[in-house]
């Protein structure tokens, strides 16, 4: 199998050749938050703003963004997603909305980037939907929570100390 690197023998960038890898079931879960003022959070959770339901629109934007990951991230392989779910809820610590995306595929490479892209697109859409109310919102904590499948095996983010 060819080296799994984005740098070719000539030192130039290239897409990794994954043709010799086996198809396996793969899943990735990512999360992120958007912090906002209490009144902004209340409006978002009411699902009723001048622009419409910000949570429903952001969930759809996350799905659409994940489907375009290979167009947004250089050298990322286009993947046939077999499942993608984006959920937005009030963050347990309060003062924020939490986005969780779960991406699935059966393929030769993982779906971590698709899950992370879904979270990013959803958070950016929430900002866009709510910026007329609160321009001081902060997007933070976009990270991979877990992944399964593939040669590298499973990963679960360690619990915070």
From TrEMBL:
Substrate binds at residues 75-77, 113-114. Residues 15-150 form the Molybdopterin cofactor biosynthesis C (MoaC) domain. It is an enzyme of class 4 (lyase). The keyword Lyase applies. One of its GO terms (biological process) is Mo-molybdopterin cofactor biosynthetic process. The active site is at 128. GO terms for molecular function: cyclic pyranopterin monophosphate synthase activity; GTP 3',8'-cyclase activity. Pfam families: MoaC. Its EC number is 4.6.1.17. Pathway: Cofactor biosynthesis; molybdopterin biosynthesis. Catalyzes the conversion of (8S)-3',8-cyclo-7,8-dihydroguanosine 5'-triphosphate to cyclic pyranopterin monophosphate (cPMP). Belongs to the MoaC family. This is Cyclic pyranopterin monophosphate synthase. It comes from Hyphomonas hirschiana VP5.
């Amino acid at each position: 199998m060819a080296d799994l690197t984005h740098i070719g023998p000539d030192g130039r960038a290239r897409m990794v050749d994954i043709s010799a890898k086996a198809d396996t079931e793969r899943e990735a879960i990512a999360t992120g938050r958007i912090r906002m003022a209490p009144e902004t959070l209340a409006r978002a959770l009411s699902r009723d703003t001048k622009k419409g339901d910000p949570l429903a629109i952001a969930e759809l934007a996350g799905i659409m963004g994940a489907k375009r990951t290979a167009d947004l991230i250089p050298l990322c392989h286009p993947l046939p997603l077999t499942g993608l779910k984006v959920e937005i809820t009030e963050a347990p610590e309060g003062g924020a909305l939490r986005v969780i995306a779960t991406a699935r595929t059966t393929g030769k490479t993982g779906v971590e980037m698709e899950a992370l892209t879904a979270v990013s697109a959803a958070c950016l859409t929430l900002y866009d939907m709510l910026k007329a109310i609160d321009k001081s919102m902060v997007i933070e904590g976009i990270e991979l929570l877990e992944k399964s499948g593939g040669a590298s095996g499973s990963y679960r983010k360690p619990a915070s100390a």
